[in-house]
Amino acid sequence: MITLSENVGQVTRKRYEEIVVADRQLVAQMGRAMFTIGDHALEIEPMRPHGGSVVHEDELFGVRASLQMYADDVGLSLSTVLNYRFTSHRWPAGRRREGVSHKVHTILASIQEENERFEAIGNPPVDDVSGTRRWTTNLAQKCVGRRPDRPGTVQEKVDRVHDLAVDEDVAVQVAADVLRRPAIAARLMDDTAVRQAVTEAQKPEHRAEAVRGLVRDDVAAAKVASDVLRRPEVAARVAADDTARRMVNRAQADRSRQQAAAFRQTSPAGPAVRRIERTEEFVDLLGAFHRFVRETSKAVPKMRDRQWSGDEREVLMSNIARARAALDWMETAVSTGQVDMDEELARILRGE
pTM of this prediction? Predict the structure, then answer.
């Protein structure tokens, strides 16, 4: 039952009730008028029994022609007159219910069994809106097995949506709209059948996008990657991706450096290792200088009387600048212990 509010629309509850009382009388008058028109149509052309395989009696005896003339003369459509005529036929004067609209009589007229029809109209169902027993067009439609114009229950609303979403384009748009509501999407994903159907319908690129959305967290991403890379066919395809392969190699190198740093910091042998590494670094630098001087000593004498083209000279001068910059960088590192390079130095060493 609905809770009564102070106003209904833009009028007070009292004024609304006054309007309803007056308009019920108008609806009753309209219903009596509709029954009168139906009775007159029956008088002009009484209902005739339908034959088995013969032509409809109304067609055979020109009933429609007579009633079309009547409809034109009173200013109604033929379909309206036929509808009123059928309702009057199903509801003889002594069986019509005062206070029940003509529309409800029309809907209940589809009940084939006469006694069942007359009994039904005298036993109105409980209206969920008002909490009282009364006939409404919605309740009448439910009584005869039709879908109501105004669905009330969840199933009735679902049925109405199904009716409207028979067209695939409409169904797609409806599904897309409701799935944009996070609470609904979450509830649907709790349904195993729905989740499986969505998964099976996805294209590979859609599945990849869905997985990326689920592994934004680094811990989850690492767990998923670890699991899938245990599958040989997946690992092979990942290894074929140049970027992925470089990132794996880089990660391995970073991990090795981290492990080495941890060992140097925590192992009792760390100080000795650090001394050895410093010695190795010193030896590596000396070796680099030695190789540079040796190779330069071999190459420069061969340049005697050599005429370089413009492109060759440009390449050589660029590399001389790179070597000079590298030597300056080394000198700074040896003098100050600072090994950082600025963007300009990095650009020169890259040969840009």
Answer: 0.45
